[in-house]
Amino acid sequence: MTDEHKTEETRALRLGIAGPVGTGKSSVIAALCRHLRDEFAIGVITNDIYTDEDARFLKSEGVLPEERIRAVETGACPHTAIRDDVTMNLMAVEDMERDFAPLDIVLVESGGDNLTATFSPALVDAQIFVLDVAGGGDVARKGGPGIGRADLLVINKIDLGEHVDVDVVQMVTDAENARDGAPVLPLSRKRPETVEKLCDWVRQMHKTYAAGGHIPIDPGPMAPHHHPHADSHEHGHPHSHSHD
Ligand SMILES: Nc1nc2c(ncn2[C@@H]2O[C@H](COP(=O)(O)OP(=O)(O)O)[C@@H](O)[C@H]2O)c(=O)[nH]1
Ligand SMILES: [Mg+2]
């Protein structure tokens, strides 16, 4: 067997989960692991800014054997590590694939970032962008690379719609309009039929990928943005930059 062949055999579907802090990325990963772990060999890489909190959450949920959940600590600029310089993440993914070969799916959780951070296609084969209804009904309409062009847009926590005065049907329609027909999935962990649809989407993506029929797309760069420098606690100098 050639080396090339071996690599192909051990190469998992790398699936990124992006979206703002608190929208439910870790919860989505936990649900996917729980429902799909008997069908697929799965590994998880989390991206935390300074801690391994997401990895610890997933370990405490017992969704996978602990050694299949690893944290990459990205420092102050989490979108950089999933888009501009993906080296740390790529190494983590490749190590995981090597250590547990053959894996079917590696899930990569982005560090919670602003609304426009997306994965580089150099790191993931496909990506899910997660919004939640609690972030406001107009978020979907505002668009952006992840909302517009991720392989799947999840509108999470639809159980909360009535509590936060968001018209979920309208939010989903707005999202669909922002996506030119690309899929939008209303989700709540309290509604098992929606979780099943999420699992079906991943099954289908894996199938297409494994058959060589999936072409990774780049949702596009994030908008120019500002964020505090790592040492702004001491100095208070806001530092801004932009990526392309
Ligand atoms: N009501 C409701 N809460 C949810 C749902 N999914 C996640 N959450 C909650 O949203 C919060 C943030 O979830 P988490 O997965 O940590 O978000 P992350 O920061 O994007 O990884 C947690 O308190 C979750 O329990 C859902 O479907 N419905
Ligand atoms: Mg998380």
From TrEMBL:
Compartments, record wording: Cytoplasm
Residues that coordinate or bind GTP: G19, P20, V21, G22, T23, G24, K25, S26
The keyword Iron belongs to this UniProt entry's keyword annotation: no
GO cellular component: cytoplasm
Gene Ontology BP annotations: urea catabolic process
Domain CobW/HypB/UreG nucleotide-binding: 15-185
InterPro entries, per database record: CobW/HypB/UreG_nucleotide-bd, P-loop_NTPase, UreG
Oligomer and partners: Homodimer. UreD, UreF and UreG form a complex that acts as a GTP-hydrolysis-dependent molecular chaperone, activating the urease apoprotein by helping to assemble the nickel containing metallocenter of UreC. The UreE protein probably delivers the nickel.
Family stated for the protein in its record: Belongs to the SIMIBI class G3E GTPase family. UreG subfamily.
Full protein name: Urease accessory protein UreG
Source organism of the structure: Pontibaca salina
Gene that this sequence comes from: ureG
